[in-house]
Design goal:
Elements: E1 3-9, H1 26-35, E2 44-50, E3 57-62, H2 72-91, E4 95-103, E5 106-112, H3 117-125, E6 131-136, E7 139-145, H4 148-154, E8 164-170, E9 185-186, E10 194-201, H5 204-213, H6 223-236, H7 241-251, E11 254-261, E12 265-270, E13 279-282, E14 286-290, H8 293-297, E15 314-318
Antiparallel strand pairs: 1-8, 1-14, 2-7, 2-8, 3-5, 3-6, 4-5, 9-10, 10-11, 11-12, 12-15, 13-14
Helix pairs in contact: 2-3, 5-6, 6-7
Length: about 325
């Protein structure tokens, strides 16, 4: 049992107000939603956060799993990895504009780069122990062990202002409790596409092999990652996000509900059985959806009406 959530402000970050002096506090809203569903997944928490697209490429890079670091030997190892990653970025043809050291084992690199993201990401991941969590002009993925309040605090998400986001709280059932198996998943190597998912794919291995034959790599053993790469591949082949999602209901077998995001859209899809829950609020100013209504009430304190999407339903909202 896991919990998923999504939110999109229909006109992007709002101007500052008395309630939101810094604009729409996307990070704080998503943290409240995910924390309200802590009972659905206490092992790890993850966010895919979107700002207005920038000219630079934003790359979030994990240098190690947080649970494995913490002594002097690791300090030296991580310091060397950071320097190796910077060197690899340059060797791949990108100019490093800025590096934000988020914590001991996570960095955010802002890059000037106009080449193929796969080429750059492969160069970075050639440093042993590293993983590119996300890459894009708008997308930043944040995920770690612990509940939403602890992860949000550690990554200073309370002040994060953005346009839309998805999030996930995980209860590990079939894979390790570590950052690589935490959601959301970036659709490597496609920029600005990510997915969270509740359920199981029964033809996961079939689609993973197909996508690997097309040259994709997978950072985890989680079926949610297959959904992300599947959608992005369909979009690269010419489908819109909504078309790709409708194709997924024909191609992917199992019991599942997922939420996906691109640089300007948020969408949801339910399989034909609709056994995995999702509750939706759609207003003039925002759309909010989650596994439980309590998560929607965590960010909207007025009287509202919510509803459950039907089986085999696909819905997409754009900014």
């Amino acid at each position: 049992m896991c919990g998923i959530a999504g939110i999109i402000y229909r006109d992007g970050p709002h101007a500052p107000t008395s309630d939101h002096p810094g604009g729409q506090r996307l990070g704080a809203d998503m943290t409240r939603m995910l924390q309200s569903m802590k009972h659905r997944g206490p092992d790890s928490t993850g966010y895919a956060l979107y700002r207005r697209p920038a000219d630079e490429l934003i790359m979030r890079i994990k240098l190690a799993d947080g649970a494995s670091v913490g002594d002097i030997e690791w300090d030296d190892r991580l310091r060397r990895r950071r320097e190796e990653v910077k060197a690899r970025i340059g060797a791949a043809g990108a100019r490093l504009a800025a590096v934000d050291e988020i914590n001991d084992y996570t960095i955010a690199a802002t890059l000037d780069y106009d080449g193929e993201i796969k080429h750059l990401a492969d160069y970075v991941e050639s440093v042993p122990g590293t993983e590119v969590l996300s890459a894009g002009s708008a997308l930043e993925i944040v995920k770690d062990l612990g509940d939403a309040e602890s992860v949000g605090r550690a990554y200073k998400l309370d002040g994060y202002v953005g346009t839309h986001a998805i999030g996930h709280v995980r209860m590990a059932t079939e894979s390790d409790v570590d950052i690589s198996n935490a959601h959301p998943y970036w659709a490597y190597p496609f920029s600005d596409v990510a997915v969270v998912h509740n359920g199981q794919l029964t033809n996961y291995h079939q689609w993973r092999r197909r996508l690997e034959r097309l040259g994709h790599r997978f950072a985890s053993d989680c079926d949610s990652e297959v959904i992300a790469v599947y959608l992005a591949q369909r979009m690269q082949d010419g489908a819109t996000l909504e078309e790709a999602m409708r194709m997924s209901l024909e191609d992917l077998d199992g019991v599942f509900t997922y939420i996906c995001v691109s640089d300007d859209a948020l969408g949801m899809a339910k399989d034909e059985l609709a056994a995995k829950p999702l509750v939706l609020y759609e207003g003039d100013d925002m759309v909010v959806l989650a596994s439980e209504e309590i998560a929607i009430r965590a960010v909207i304190d007025r009287e509202i009406e919510t509803y459950d999407p039907y089986e085999s339903e696909v819905m997409v909202w754009t900014r």
